[in-house]
Amino acid sequence: MSTAVSADGTKIAYTRAGSGPALVLVDGAMCYRGSSPNDALAKELAARFTVYTYDRRGRGESTDTGPYAIEREVEDIAALVKEAGGEVFLFGISSGAALALEAARSLPVTKLALYEPPFVVDDTRPRVPADYPARLDAALAAGKPGKAVKMFMTEGVGLSGATVALMRIMPFWAKLKRVAPTLPYDTALVFDHQSGEPLPAAWPEVKVPTLAIDGGKSPDWMRHGVASLAKVLPSAEYRTLPGQTHIVKAAALAPVLTDFYLG
To answer: What's the pTM?
Structure first.
């Protein structure tokens, strides 16, 4: 493990593997090194890239510094970019895709790839309730991380109550509760685009070549969000991985990323 220091003094733990152009992978909600789909993806990509995986602030072996702001997480990525030599390819998954999109506004990102940012842009699923962020904060303030995780899974992700009830008896539920305090961070990244309204007409600051990816078996609402994002980004293409879901397999994703970054 290595450590980069962010602008506000937060220590960001990261792992570097492989050789080739620098590629930073950004996790989604509640994921961190050792508990992330990016772990397997990094192994697939290490033959062609120098891959950086890291623990977002407040997770794993990274520290945290309040108050939270999206800009602080962009600064965390900036610290990794500095460690990587000053210029990187960037990949983000789920809410991590939303963070990668924010980072690409200002950081020296050569190419950007995004897998299924959870944007709700139409009525194919219920919009995330307007009071969701406040109730999430209240649950955490009351010392009820399990309640916060349940809210995230049902209202944020859209899972059924029965599915979440089954999850609560699984061993990994304890891990989810430990990182529950970071759920408001991911909410801040995506909530403005979960209202069921169309995305803004353009993201003019994000001009780098971008690949927006979804899975062919993912829910319609998620795929609609990805397709809509590809339309409003100035230099984006849209790609669907047949047979994949939001839990995308590294073996299916890695060749697509390699072709995009190196092509």
So the answer is: 0.97
